[in-house]
Design goal:
Order of helices and strands: HHHHHHHHHHEEH
Low-confidence stretches: none
Strand content: under 5%
Helix content: over 70%
Number of helices: 11
Largest sheet: 2 strands, antiparallel
Number of domains: 1
Radius of gyration: 20 Å
Shape: globular
Number of strands: 2
Mean pLDDT: 94
Strand order of the largest sheet: 1-2
Distance between the termini: 15 Å
Length: 321
């Protein structure tokens, strides 16, 4: 439990240093290499080969992470604990997400629209070249809201329950979905296993994340009238299913309600339009400060989630003692 806490604290403090090797990049390279070998144009082959890619990637990530952890513990308890800290640090993504979103915020604050588009393109899948300022802000807020579950709460839950091996397995599942889990002509069959597995893995964590974010919105409303806990609950109840994904709107609806803005609408992916249902009420124009507010909501929700999970782990430990 202490290794988990230290790993989370390190992530919040320094994020992911770009000059260090990162296991998620290695997972991405593995997925790309397997895709080059396994992809074909036949429907049956694509479904089957996509499932093979998913199984191999998940198996490798699980085996390697478990092997590293076990091997370090065989050397000494201190080496094992250090391995858990480092792996947890890499699994959690709140620090890096905050850093990348703030790059967009800072460039918009200095009227550097092109720089903001370039920074935004590093963290979103949609086309950014034609986005106006409001569109860029909306994209950054949606990313922070969605990744409160995918990049923060869900990895925390999996790591707390199953150790670094479970956390890294979740990251592999999420990375496969982000790379091949698209419902388009190219990936409709090949990426089906990746998309469905990600939906299943995130079903419970996304709903937990929504509840933690609602709690965070009530806490933040005590310090700023820009947050509303009651509207977070109202919009979550109304709009939590307004998305093609069964999970993404859970946290986006809370964020939209808490901030009093409207998310969703028309976006472009690879030049193709994608009309998403609106989430939230258009009570005021979205503004650059909403990026910082969405990150405050994310960080507060993470702290609440960590405290709740640590308390539950402590209670279970005491019961089993």
């Amino acid at each position: 439990m202490s290794a988990l806490a230290i790993g989370i604290a390190l992530d919040l403090a320094i994020g992911d240093p770009h000059n260090l090797p990162h296991p998620i990049r290695a997972i991405g390279r593995l997925i790309s290499a397997l895709e080059r070998r396994l992809y074909d144009d036949g429907e049956r082959g694509n479904i089957t080969n996509g499932a093979i890619l998913w199984t191999v990637t998940a198996g490798v990530c699980l085996a390697v992470t478990a092997g590293i952890t076990a091997g370090c513990y065989m050397l000494s308890p201190y080496a094992g604990a250090a391995a858990e800290v480092i792996l947890t640090f890499y699994i959690m993504a709140a620090g890096s997400l905050r850093s990348e979103c703030m790059k967009v915020y800072d460039k918009l604050s200095s009227n550097n629209a092109e720089g903001a588009r370039k920074s935004l393109s590093m963290i979103v899948g949609r086309d950014t070249e034609n986005l106006d300022e409001a569109g860029m802000i909306r994209a950054a807020v949606e990313t922070a809201a969605e990744n409160t579950s995918d990049g923060v709460i869900a990895p925390l839950v999996f790591t707390a329950l199953f150790g670094p091996a479970g956390g890294m397995l979740y990251k592999a599942i999420n990375t496969m979905d982000s790379m091949i889990g698209y419902n388009n002509e190219h990936y409709r069959y090949f990426g089906r296993t990746a998309a469905k597995a990600d939906d299943i893995a995130n079903f419970i964590p996304s709903r937990m994340s929504a509840l933690f974010m609602i709690t965070a919105s009530f806490i933040l409303s005590l310090f700023s009238d820009r947050f509303s806990g009651t509207d977070a609950v109202r919009i979550w109840k109304r709009d939590r299913r307004n998305h093609k994904s069964p999970n993404s709107a859970q946290t986006e609806s809370v964020c939209a309600g808490a901030l009093g803005v409207r998310l969703g609408g028309l976006s472009y992916y690879g030049g193709m339009p994608s009309e998403k249902p609106y989430i939230g009420d258009d009570t005021r124009p979205i503004e650059n400060e909403d990026i910082r507010r969405s990150l405050a909501l994310m960080n507060t929700a993470e702290i609440i989630a960590a405290l709740v999970i640590f308390a539950m782990l402590f209670i279970v430990k005491e019961i089993l003692r």
